[in-house]
Amino acid sequence: MFMLESYLMSKQTDNLSNLVKPYGLSEEESKVYILLLQNDFTTALTLSRKLHLGRTKIYRLLDTLRDKQLVEFKLQERGMQFGATHPSKFEHLVAQKEQEIAGLKKHLPDLVAHLNALVPGEAKESQVLYYEGVEGLKQVSYNITNAKGMLRVFEMEHMSKFVPHAYAETVREELVANKIMTRDLTNIAKSPGYTDVTELIKKYSEMRYINPKLLKINFEVLIYNDVYTTYTYTGDEVFCVEIHNAALAEMQKQLFDFVWTSAQPMRFSDVRGAATV
What is the rounded CA–CA span in Å between residue 166 and residue 199? Predict the structure, then answer.
């Protein structure tokens, strides 16, 4: 019976640790915090014994947790004891992260401008970039937030089919923030809602249907600025190319616009982007 209870407690601690780690804690930091939360104030020696970690390491972990305002201490007759602060402190951690991200976004245009100034002029005129895996798809998806004015898309599926939904929503929020108009050409005559970024649907999205007998869209294609990007995702195979060339991009924009004029307009039937011909 005791062994079963110990196993269940250990399992619960592991589950809680996995919930805590995404908020910037290592696995060992998570276990220290959870143990303190369960046992009120205790000594570093007790933590060391229960977690099977050296006391020197325990003190390092406690110092890190104290910097994150997740641990407090008090001096008792038998020495220093440590306790976990209230779980609401995680709200403070999230607020800090939000401030950091806001700062990074604020300075991003200056950073990109300064770094671009270091790129040789010839390289800026024309280049081909290759990307691999889901991380590559995430990168080219985020790059569209640099579009000026219009983003043209030959669409196989909505972005969430290629990259994690939460990441796709972040990209959509950036499209709205940067007031980027999107035009999507698709072979899908009816599609369900796909996003909670409703302002993108209301203000910045247009869709048209092209019969696959006239034009079969086998690759996702993104056209904006002087950039032509194409990719496909089949099983484990990811193929993705981003071409920076003004002449190519201009020709592809003209081809897209030519197809657009003969395609059938689609109507959004809800704020989440459900659409039909």
Answer: 16
Distance CA 8, CA 106 (A): 47
pTM of structure? 0.61
Domain architecture of the chain: domains with CATH: 14-87 (1.10.10.10), 127-276 (3.30.870.10)
- Number of other residues whose CB lies within 10 A of the CB of residue 65: 21
Residue 21, pLDDT > 80, answer no
- How confident is the model over 109-155, as pLDDT tens digits? 778 777 877 766 555 568 889 888 888 888 889 999 999 989 999 99
Q: What confidence score (pLDDT) does residue 2 get?
A: 40
In whole angstroms, how far apart are CA 218 and each of 87, 130, 160, 202? 49, 19, 17, 28
Of 70, 72, 105, residue with least CA distance to 90: 70
**Residue 221 — left, alpha, or beta (φ > 0 → left; ψ -120 to 50 → alpha)?**
beta
Q: Count other Cβ atoms within 10 Å, centred on residue 163.
A: 21
